Amino acid sequence: AGNKTFTMIKPDAVADGHTGAIIKMIEEAGFRIVALKKTVLTPERAGQFYEVHKERGFYNDLCKYMSSGAIVPMILEKDNAVADFRKLIGATNPANADEGTIRKLFAKSIEANAIHGSDSDENAEIEGNFFFARTEKF
Ligand code: CMP
């Protein structure tokens, strides 16, 4: 048991062949994989996922980038999942990410930053349900 968080490995990291290395880091940090798939977002669906950012200057670029290739969404479980996962991935801008974090190791830029992590329990639930049906979570 434990809390849940939602993550997705972003198109740059999937295209560069880092999926396995990132999943290994996630499991070694003590997260249990509840759900996992490889899929693609249309620009419209990326827009829905990032709706909260729609007034931001980077929104259109972000939707284009997030639909540019395959992504690997996952639901993860661990005590204190949201906060511990954000620690594991590091700062949004890889220039500010701590040594040893996933973004420090694999992110290319503030946009192509390798991986997403939910910012609250509530958003983890919403984001997980965006990608996964009840029968895909166990
Ligand atoms: P994430 O925090 O997972 O979700 C919002 C995403 O928008 C973020 O990762 C980056 O991919 C992107 N993003 C955030 N801030 C910027 C920015 N200033 N410029 C470009 N992209 C950004």
From TrEMBL:
Enzyme Commission number, as recorded: 2.7.4.6
Organism of provenance: Rhodocytophaga rosea
CDD domains (UniProt xref): NDPk_I (cd04413)
Pfam families on file: NDK
Gene Ontology biological process terms in this record: CTP biosynthetic process; GTP biosynthetic process; UTP biosynthetic process
Enzyme active site: 116 (pros-phosphohistidine intermediate)
Similarity comment: family membership: Belongs to the NDK family.
Protein name: Nucleoside-diphosphate kinase
Top-level division of the source organism's lineage: Bacteria
Domain called Nucleoside diphosphate kinase-like: residue spans: 2-136
Keywords, comma-separated and alphabetical: ATP-binding, Kinase, Nucleotide-binding, Phosphoprotein, Transferase
Residue positions binding ATP: 10, 58, 86, 92, 103, 113
